[in-house]
TrEMBL record:
Transmembrane segments: 6-28, 73-97, 109-129, 141-173, 193-212, 224-242, 288-314, 326-343, 372-388
Organism listed in the record: Leptospira brenneri
Keywords from the UniProt entry: Cell membrane, Membrane, Transmembrane, Transmembrane helix
Listed name of the protein: Chromate efflux transporter
Membrane topology: Multi-pass membrane protein
Length: 389
């Protein structure tokens, strides 16, 4: 029953989490923190902060970690499968019929999904802000972070900001009783070391193996593993890396790449699932499903190895008083990152007219004050979008 709950909870999120990585974290917060109470708000914020530091898709890593807290490595695997499966299936099927689908016919409901993401993200930021920024010092950190990132968008800058305000937290902030520490799954340190060794071993070994044995499958694994292992900032950042790997080499046509990128922004689930689409249409792999599976697993594998490898040591680190102080500053900065991302790309890609603003506002009130489940609000918004657009 435990494993089924992990899988079906992640599957529901994979079917309803529209709006990109930042929105995913909002949906996760609502499901895992507010509704199921698998983890408290402070521990969730710590986990999000950790995943912001790690390369790969932050939202997927948070999901894997939460699955790990409930069911170990099997739980982490089921959580990843459940969250990724819907988008992977849609994108692979889209790869089959990419030339036969006219997306313009469906622009109304696609736009409705983007609008409702605004409401979901706004609610999550409000909730996290109340918990993580209860004083003027942390509110100031949040404000400074959001202003900087609104002017300068860079994944590397995000890392520097988190490090800087972590240092600020050590000297100027103190843990308070309103943000209690809650331990995550302690994990197994020996298993953690093994997974970290696998992460670095594959990162170093695959390029060498590719030169010795230049088979199609090894080339795909190497390219997508490297993209997943070296990208900071989530799914939107990995797309240029993937384009550099598959388009110039002739594996995927430029038009096919852009078509897949377009649909990946209009469906629920992680943007990294785009790798399955690229594997499906790749000219290197004659078997559609083999290519899709290879690329999909290779892109997510680094994140899986890293989060399982680091969690056992992360839990001990968090007990250190200075680390706890640093996390106060980092968590406040994370809220600032979410606010900046709320404007670009969530708001700027969805709110163009008064109708858009009205629909997003109505969705926010349903979520925040009427406590309507997010999946219900998503469906209602899509239905309304057919009539008002």
């Amino acid at each position: 029953m435990k494993y089924l709950e992990i899988f079906f909870t992640a599957l529901k999120l994979g079917c309803t989490s529209f709006g990109g990585p930042i929105a995913h974290l909002s949906y996760f917060h609502n499901e895992y923190v507010t509704k199921k109470r698998w983890i408290n708000a402070q521990a969730y914020a710590d986990l999000v902060s950790l995943c912001q530091f790690l390369p790969g898709p932050a939202s997927s890593q948070v999901g894997m970690a939460l699955g790990y807290t409930r069911g170990g490595v099997i739980g982490a695997t089921l959580s990843w499968i459940g969250f990724t499966l819907p988008s992977a299936i849609i994108l692979i099927l889209f790869g089959l019929g990419v030339t036969k689908i006219d997306l313009s016919v469906h622009k109304n409901w696609i736009h409705g999904l983007k609008v409702v993401a605004v409401a979901v993200v706004a609610q999550a930021i409000l909730g996290m802000g109340k918990k993580l920024c209860p004083d003027k010092e942390r509110i100031t950190i949040t404000a400074i972070t959001s202003v900087i990132l609104l002017f300068f968008t860079s994944a590397f800058l995000q890392i520097l900001i988190l490090i800087f305000f972590g240092i600020v937290g050590i000297f100027f902030l103190n843990p308070s009783n309103d943000l209690p520490h809650e331990p995550l799954h302690k994990g197994n340190k020996k298993l953690g070391i093994l997974f970290l060794c696998l992460f670095f071993g594959l990162l170093i070994g695959l390029p060498i193996l590719r030169e010795i044995y230049p088979y199609q499958e090894i080339k795909l694994v190497d390219s997508f593993y490297r993209a997943g292992a070296l990208v900071f900032g989530g799914g939107h950042v990995v797309l240029p890396l993937l384009q550099a790997e598959v388009v110039p080499s002739g594996w995927v046509d430029h038009d096919l790449f852009l078509a897949g990128y377009g649909i990946s922004n209009a469906i629920p689930g992680p943007l990294f699932a785009f790798s399955g689409y690229l594997g499906a249409v790749s000219k290197l792999e004659p078997n559609l499903y083999t290519g899709a599976t290879i690329c999909l697993v290779a892109a997510f594998l680094p994140s899986f190895l890293l989060i399982i490898g680091i969690l056992p040591f992360w839990e001990n680190l968090k007990k250190n008083p200075n680390i706890r102080k640093a996390m106060l500053g980092i968590n406040a900065a994370v809220v600032g990152i979410l606010i900046a991302a709320f404007y670009q790309p969530v708001w700027t890609n969805a709110i163009f007219t008064a109708k858009d603003f009205a629909l997003a506002t109505f969705g926010f009130f349903l979520l925040e004050y009427w406590k309507i489940p997010s999946w219900t609000v998503v469906i209602a918004t899509v239905l309304v979008s057919f009539f008002i657009y």
